[in-house]
Amino acid sequence: MIKAHALTKRYGAKTAVDSIDFTVRPGLVTGFLGPNGAGKSTTMRMIMGLDRPSSGSVTVNGLPYARHRAPVRQVGALLDAKAVHPGRSARSHLLAVAATHRIGARRVDEVIGYTGLGPVAGKRVGGFSLGMGQRLGIAVALLGDPATLILDEPVNGLDPEGVVWVRQLARRLAAEGRTVFLSSHLMSEMAQTADHILILGRGRIIADAPVGEILGGVEGESVQVRTPQAAPLARLLEAEGATVPAAELDLLSVRGLTAQRIAEIAAAAGVVIYGLTPVTRSLEDAYMALTRDDVEYRSAEANR
Ligand SMILES: Nc1ncnc2c1ncn2[C@@H]1O[C@H](COP(=O)(O)OP(=O)(O)OP(=O)(O)O)[C@@H](O)[C@H]1O
């Protein structure tokens, strides 16, 4: 569990994180989103005790990071590609990290198995692919068997297989009852991985809700209906409670009724339908709508 209370970070005149309150709960994957410069990394660094809040506080499992006697047993993090001695093997790297935290060799072998590093555990880390390096970083984060995991951009640069692996791992860790806090700029991936979404914009929270609520929140779903009898069908659907903006020749965009209900109403009235397409808003659409005013650097094209 991670709890932030009036958490603030200023760098000179710049307020990177502006008095935010949030709770990241156990048993769920919480996605952390926001435009570049929104303050995500600064927040994660404060959670991990790598940056001091200017004011306010953030705790992990009830205490600030630095007040835990054995923080690696509370929270594990993949913040950025770790500097690993390229000549060392994955196993000897893990053994070295484990030794500094009084963690035994048995746990090292457990995390090697858990992260699928077995076949390459004896190989030099210098020759690792990005995906293997990422697995090693996650293995390090898991060494202390922590209840809370923080993964900053864990799928950055991974191939599709690696992306799926991270997704399944995050889901498995949450299913084990852990708190999983994950940042990513890949919206489609986040939509498949996260249960709950926290969006930051210019240092403030602009959304904190279950994925379903974020997707449904701004406009909801619609159904595109292609029919040669657009105007009469629009009137029929409106009478059933749908919202049908001004019809476009033979295409209607209907909100408020399911595709099945629309087909039933049309059939009952003898209206011909050529096509029915439910349009689901993507997390990317919802994110763009929510962060429209909070993007620090916008392209000239997008500003028009
Ligand atoms: N050490 C620092 N000194 C001064 N300003 C900083 C420092 N670290 C971050 N900032 C500023 O604070 C703001 C938040 O940065 P942060 O890296 O936390 O954003 P982010 O959401 O992680 O962005 P990205 O998605 O690009 O990683 C930015 O405007 C950044 O320029």
TrEMBL record:
<protein>
    <submittedName>
        <fullName>ATP-binding cassette domain-containing protein</fullName>
    </submittedName>
</protein>
<keyword id="KW-0547">Nucleotide-binding</keyword>
<keyword id="KW-0067">ATP-binding</keyword>
<comment type="similarity">
    <text>Belongs to the ABC transporter superfamily.</text>
</comment>
<feature type="domain" description="ABC transporter">
    <location>
        <begin position="2"/>
        <end position="227"/>
    </location>
</feature>
<keyword id="KW-0813">Transport</keyword>
<dbReference type="InterPro" id="IPR003593">
    <property type="entry name" value="AAA+_ATPase"/>
</dbReference>
<dbReference type="InterPro" id="IPR003439">
    <property type="entry name" value="ABC_transporter-like_ATP-bd"/>
</dbReference>
<dbReference type="Pfam" id="PF00005">
    <property type="entry name" value="ABC_tran"/>
</dbReference>
<dbReference type="GO" id="GO:0005524">
    <property type="term" value="F:ATP binding"/>
</dbReference>
<dbReference type="InterPro" id="IPR027417">
    <property type="entry name" value="P-loop_NTPase"/>
</dbReference>
